[in-house]
Design a protein that fits this description.
The complex is a heterodimer of chains A (95) and B (483).
Chain A (H helix, E strand, L loop, with lengths): L4 H10 L6 H21 L31 H6 L4 E2 L2 E5 L4
Chain B lengths: L2 E12 L38 H13 L7 E2 L1 E5 L9 E5 L8 E6 L5 E13 L3 E7 L2 E5 L6 E7 L6 H18 L11 E11 L9 E6 L2 H20 L7 E6 L4 E7 L9 E2 L6 E2 L2 H9 L5 H12 L3 H9 L1 H14 L2 H18 L11 H12 L5 H13 L5 H8 L7 H13 L2 H9 L3 H18 L6 H11 L3
Parallel strand pairs in B: 11-12
Antiparallel strand pairs in B: 1-9, 1-10, 2-15, 3-4, 3-14, 5-6, 6-9, 7-8, 10-11, 12-13
Helix pairs in contact in B: 1-4, 2-3, 5-6, 7-8, 7-9, 9-10, 12-14, 12-15, 14-15
Classes of the chains: A mainly alpha (95), B alpha+beta (483).
């Protein structure tokens, strides 16, 4: 199975990864190879197999609804690039 | 051309847990920014989510209250998108295997009919943080206290055909989740948020039209306005021969305007996949039965009981039973006030009007049901006239005095119900108004007579310094004037 340049460019936008023209050509080949590998798996008959949500055959433990965390804002904000009034500052976003 | 309106809703309900869905951070509202955002909520490397049992209990209670199948095995998935108030770069949510399966809610409509609205499913997920777009030197401020707050998203089938039905459903859902105690229902703080999917089709057609989604409506009024606005917008386009673009729209309630947020072409490709950090959650019979045992009385049952137990009519019972806190206030009032109908009138009248005027919730009311009940008792036993009761209510509300009998005493509001005293006042007043008496006695039309009778009440109330029992005055007047 092959992957188109358009698909690669779209995935790159969604993943917020910058790729230039030359890289796209290389990715076209590499990703195509990976998809070919995955295609081989499609040969297996999975009609009677339930889709797997998790590789471990275990179920999730739940936690009681009790506050266990304390305020550590100062420690977290010490490593943030920009903060003000207790807020994390990020490049302006308006949707 | 005639059109059918098709409406489906997606409703985000913030669960009233103490902690977040995947961490032990507090969810208390109003804390200083980012003081309740810890390593898991901030998506620090190496952290792992652990789901909150109470969030599952609440979701199961919701499912049981909406006649739904409970998902015995539910799976969390990652919904991937970039936005700075979502630190992980994905929202942990449920998709193919949600905790609550198909269910339904019956809604009552203004014409007295009942309509069933089907719920497709309800799933558990986490809320995002808040972005503050005020100017921080050209940057955006992020508060992640809300990030990770548990939500259930309720998705209906497109079963509603008007704004009235959609609002009735939204109000019913609000009534159910607040009665269950799984959500505080405070819409002004975003505890319930509505997305409305709307499409039009030619009347009677079986083919659905293209739909739009109007997001994040946080009041019933805005929801009603947004639906009216969007229906009209789509109708104008279709009748001009245009086509509806599938898109997400934002509605501005203050200006009654909407604008496109993104079209299908720009739509996010969320690339859902099962979250490897979380195992499937299995819910067993014991958990479900425990949740069932915690179910309080639900609005429909309460409404039926109010009619049966207090003899209320359907309308009064409907209003007083819908909100759990108002219902509790009403029952406390009746317990201390005996007369249920009078209690119902005062709560729906003066009490609700004051709450609305001061934008207060029932919980914030400055008077208790016991106090209002004591006042109702004094109206019922004829100690207070309705005018006197208004003065007592005022004194209770402003906190001037919180004892009803003490207020009546201090303000001299005790009605005179001594028939002898009242009779002599009537004699005196009638003697001073001979023309009106003759006029009354010559009048044949009973309606006009009744109106003329009112003309004597003013002077009588004046003569009794406002303390004469109007009902008794009326009886005496009718007798003395010769029916």
């Amino acid at each position: 199975m092959s992957i188109s340049r358009e698909d690669i460019e779209k995935v790159a936008v969604l993943a917020r990864i910058k790729v230039d023209g030359e890289q796209v050509s290389a990715l076209e080949k590499d990703l195509g190879n990976i998809l070919d590998l995955v295609d081989q798996l499609s040969a297996a008959d999975t009609d009677s197999v339930e889709p797997m949500a998790h590789p471990l055959d275990a179920v999730q433990k739940l936690r009681p609804d009790v506050v266990t965390e304390t305020n550590q804002r100062e420690a977290f904000q010490a490593i943030a690039p920009a903060t003000e009034d207790g807020l994390y500052l990020v490049p302006r976003v308006i949707e | 051309m005639q059109w059918d309106i098709v409406i489906g809703l997606e409703i985000h309900v913030q669960l009233a847990t103490q902690t977040k869905i995947f961490s032990g951070s507090s969810t208390a509202y109003g804390a200083e920014p980012n003081t309740q955002a810890n390593a898991v909520d901030l998506a620090m490397p190496g952290t792992l989510p652990v789901p909150n049992e109470q969030a599952f209990r609440y979701a199961v209670m919701f499912g049981l209250a909406t006649n739904a199948e409970i998902g015995r095995r539910s799976v969390f998935e990652r919904k991937n998108y970039f936005y700075p108030d979502l630190p992980k770069g994905y929202q942990t949510t449920q998709l193919a295997q949600p905790i609550v399966g198909p269910g339904y809610v019956d809604i009552d409509l203004a014409d007295g009919s009942t309509k069933r609205v089907r719920i497709h499913h309800a799933h558990l997920e986490e809320d995002a943080g808040k972005s503050l777009h005020e100017d921080y030197h050209g940057m955006t401020g992020i508060d992640l206290n809300r990030a990770g707050t548990p939500l259930i998203e309720v998705v209906t089938e497109p079963d509603m055909t008007s704004a009235e039905e959609a609002v009735a459903f939204a109000k019913k859902l609000h009534s159910i989740v607040t009665s269950l105690g799984i959500c505080d229902g405070d819409m002004s703080q975003g505890s319930m948020r509505f997305d409305v999917n709307i499409s039009l089709k030619p009347k009677g057609s079986d083919t659905l039209g293209t739909r739009t989604e109007t997001k994040n409506l946080n009041s019933f009024r805005f929801m009603e306005q947004a639906i009216a606005h969007e229906v009209e917008r789509q109708m104008d386009i279709l009748e001009d021969g245009g086509v509806i673009v599938q898109e997400t729209r934002l509605y501005n309630g203050d200006r009654d305007e909407s604008r496109s947020m993104r079209t299908k072409e720009e739509a996010n490709d969320y690339r859902y996949f099962p979250c490897p950090d979380l195992l499937p959650v299995e819910i067993d019979d014991a958990f479900i039965e425990d949740a069932r045992s915690r179910l309080p009385e639900l609005p429909d049952a309460r409404r039926a009981r109010f009619k049966e137990q207090y003899g209320l009519n359907d309308y009064d019972a409907g209003i007083l039973s819908a909100d759990a806190k108002l219902a509790a206030f009403f029952e406390e009032t009746v317990e201390h006030g005996k007369d249920a109908k009078l209690a119902a009138n005062w709560i729906q009248g003066e009490f609700s009007a004051r709450l609305n005027a001061e934008e207060k919730s029932v919980a914030e009311a400055p008077i208790t049901g016991a106090q209002l009940g004591a006042m109702v008792t004094r109206i019922a036993d004829n100690t207070l006239s309705s005018a006197g009761a208004k003065k007592v209510f005022e004194a209770l509300w402003t906190g001037e005095n919180n004892d009803v009998d003490a207020i009546i005493e201090a303000k001299g509001l005790k009605q005179v119900s001594d028939t002898g005293a009242l009779e002599s006042m009537v004699d005196e007043v009638l003697a001073g108004m001979p023309d009106q008496v003759t006029q009354y006695q010559n009048e044949e039309d009973p309606k006009k007579r009744k109106k003329m009778l009112g003309g004597f009440m003013g002077p009588l109330m004046k003569a009794s310094k406002g303390q004469g029992n109007p009902k008794l005055f009326n009886e005496i007047l009718v007798r003395k004037l010769g029916g």
